[in-house]
């Protein structure tokens, strides 16, 4: 009794062995939980489970649910409701059931809760690239947590913290907004950077053509455009996260209407969609910084 009590070690079942479920299975096993079973149906997921969850037996959904104390549902958002209904047919009262979907809270798990299980939404707010790097990144990530009551909340928060991650409570009624904000910041960033790289490739290639734009740095896998953009984008991201909107630099922040007009003209010659994206985002920056009427008129989104 002089030693601190160790957290309870749970029998864990993973549904299913996709990128998220596999990473969470690895992470839970690393902190001592017994990840004993996993649902894997496609050849890719079966191979992934064999390589990264070799301690877990591939079993059918009913067997995984009935034999597990903690059930992690890691299926696409669109499949979650149907999978939850199947789980409800086999769940044991007192089991802990969590899902990893960002857009859903606990309402989608209501059939399971009615059977006496403890339910929670535990969404890891990170992107998964299908490697062991995903598991390592979990420890530095945040999880959006939603639970039905204090018991579910305490269990979900403890599980997330046990992984080394940071739990952040999200109200059931705010899950869609939470998910939209993450998608806007992360997924739409992908589109933004892709457009910027495309424009830079055109600038590097110049009137002579695309040969220079296709070149890579020292024969590596990253192109000149990506190499040029990476330090600037990385610094901008770090600055805005630390300083907020005051970190903005560039022509919109300076009120340089002529420069922005030239940008729009040049980008439209590369692709009209890139110019339109620039106009929308620069317009948001102008509104956030109380830009003058000439800048706002220039950046007005036209039909």
Q: Quick one: CATH class of the largest domain?
A: Alpha Beta
**Mean pLDDT over the residues:** 92
Largest sheet: 8 strands, mixed
- Helix count equals 14
Under CATH, the topology of the largest domain is which? Rossmann fold
CATH architecture of the largest domain: 3-Layer(aba) Sandwich
Q: What's the end-to-end separation, in Å?
A: 72 Å
Instruction: Give the overall form.
Output: elongated
What would you call the structural class?
Answer: alpha/beta
Secondary structure tally: strands: 8
Helix content: 40-55%
**Going across the major beta sheet, what is the strand order?**
3-2-1-4-5-6-7-8
Radius of gyration: 24 Å
Q: Domains counted in the coordinates: how many? A: 2
| Strand composition percent | 5-15%
Low-confidence region ranges: 1-6
Protein name: Putative short-subunit dehydrogenase-like oxidoreductase (DUF2520 family)
Domain DUF2520: 142-283
Pfam families: DUF2520, Rossmann-like
Domain Putative oxidoreductase/dehydrogenase Rossmann-like: 3-124
Written description of the protein model:
The chain folds into two domains: 160 residues, 3-Layer(aba) Sandwich (Rossmann fold); 122 residues. It has 14 helices and eight strands. The protein has an eight-stranded mixed sheet, with helices on both faces. Strand 2, helix 2 and strand 3 form a beta-alpha-beta unit. Helix 12 runs antiparallel to helix 13. The longest helix is centred in the middle third of the chain and has 31 residues. The termini are far apart.
